[in-house]
Amino acid sequence: xxxxxxxxxxxxxxxxxxxxxxxxxxxxxxxxxxxxxxxxxxxxxxxxxxxxxxxxxxxxxxxxxxxxxxxxxxxxxxxxxxxxxxxxxxxxxxxxxxxxxxxxxxxxxxxxxxxxxxxxxxxxxxxxxxxxxxxxxxxxxxxxxxxxxxxxxxxxxxxxxxxxxxxxxxxxxxxxxxxxxxxxxxxxxxxxxxxxxxxxxxxxxxxxxxxxxxxxxxxxxxxxxxxxxxxxxxxxxxxxxxxxxxxxxxxxxxxxxxxxxxxxxxxxxxxxxxxxxxxxxxxxxxx
Length: 287
Description:
The chain is of the alpha/beta class. 57% of the residues lie in helices and 8% in strands.
């Protein structure tokens, strides 16, 4: 229903009451904004009551306004441009208290991620990474930062970690063309999904590599060939991508892998501490 929702609303426009037609017209023209405002706020914008907005959602066949809103969000998940995201910040953030608004929003995403994460998929991902001959990590654009974070720590646990650069399509494939069936790719992608990441995973699947996908939904394009999918809530409705929940999943992966390899990691860190001291890698702070 989600793909045809706007078309359906438009087609049924003549059958709606005057109040419902106001709501329908707004959603058809501004569905990117309607997806992120409350029923009360939508009612005020078009000049109807909150209960009228709720009844409109029910008339469309939804269990309530939140269900309609969810369908709209799914519809635009990968379509919001940066400009559109800037425009709807006001509907999502209390400009008088930006810090509190953002912190509360991130806390809610963490809570929802914890409630929805598939533990069996998480355990399977840990086992797959542990048994891989080579570990490839890929994340493009804003996801590149947390891909590097994961790579930094996995390099302390395993000798066979490769962080894939996505600066160009050719460069990406040059780094993964030796990938094989005993290897694993950990792919990180959130809306708007990177085509380079998607294409790299298609190649990895053709080479029979295992794939661990860290993304926002089972409907994400990077889950198509994934061995395991770890979903984390993100926020596609503001200019800055909220990657707090994905980073938390990555932290959990790192901790789980360290627990499984604690003896090897302990030895590695002990040797590295000697090297860091010898070459004064860290500032020796004395209070």
